[in-house]
């Protein structure tokens, strides 16, 4: 199986991270002769939302124990005749259908995305997102106007903006001295952007109220932004193209299939209107 970008797989199916094929896939454990591979452990982590972002080395012992227990329980269940149980057979058929569908969708959708298509989509992206003015600013988020006025007064007395941000700001940027990096006007709420883009580099705003609270803003720099390099957004563009390809595949399969729908009372339902596909 070829390596599939993790972000692309997530975009197609909403499955979270999907492990790419490992160049080396060592055995993590054996249970009565049954091998558990490292890829099995990693796949289990990626399929568990609360663990998907955790470093593998931290959750590895727990996941491995869980897989070992699964093998032992499955062996016991087979000895008990559950492999022939009607409920188990139905669940296995359902799982097989879901896995084949997902694998076919992923492979067929990604196979149609070429490097030239990605380059063309990148050019479209640049035309749709022309360079515009960007501001680099810091801010201190506070709960009240009085608190914001006090910060403004402390700044006039010579307190460093970064120090006050670390000490008082109510958002995570406070740890970075309130630094928000560069942003375009449309990327912030209107009240914040209007105040930030009026400032000259080095200037500090009076208290500004937004839906998040009260802000004191300092402008650090202004520039005309540029489009991201292709390498920076290549995987996102691939995901877009693959999603569009998958939609066409499903549309073609649907148009060539005989499908009957029934409501909760078992009565025939009218087919849904055809989906509109804009260019």
The CATH class of the largest domain is identified as Alpha Beta
CATH architecture of the largest domain: Roll
The pLDDT mean sits at 88
Radius of gyration: 27 Å
Strand portion, in percent? 5-15%
In this structure, how is the largest beta sheet organized?
4 strands, antiparallel
Number of strands: 6
Query: What best-fitting shape do the alpha-carbon axes yield?
Result: extended
Total helix count? 9
**End-to-end gap:** 32 Å
Tally of separate domains: 3
Strand order of the largest sheet: 4-3-6-5
Order of helices and strands: HEEHHHHEHHEHEEH
What's the helical proportion of residues?
Answer: 40-55%
Low-confidence stretches: 1-23
Structural class: alpha+beta
What is the CATH fold-level name of the largest domain? Answer: Chitinase A, domain 3
Explain what the structure shows:
The protein is α+β, with helices and mostly antiparallel strands and 279 residues long. The protein has helices at residues 6-13, 38-46, 56-79, 86-111, 115-128, 145-156, 161-168, 190-198, 230-255; strands spanning 27-31, 34-37, 133-142, 179-184, 208-210, 213-224. The longest helix has 26 residues, at 86-111. The radius of gyration is 27 Å and the shape is extended.
Note the main attributes of this structure.
single chain, 4-stranded antiparallel β-sheet, 279 residues, 9 helices, alpha+beta, two-stranded antiparallel sheet, disordered N terminus, Chitinase A, domain 3
Protein topology:
Layout: H1 6-13, E1 27-31, E2 34-37, H2 38-46, H3 56-79, H4 86-111, H5 115-128, E3 133-142, H6 145-156, H7 161-168, E4 179-184, H8 190-198, E5 208-210, E6 213-224, H9 230-255
Antiparallel strand pairs: 1-2, 3-4, 3-6, 5-6
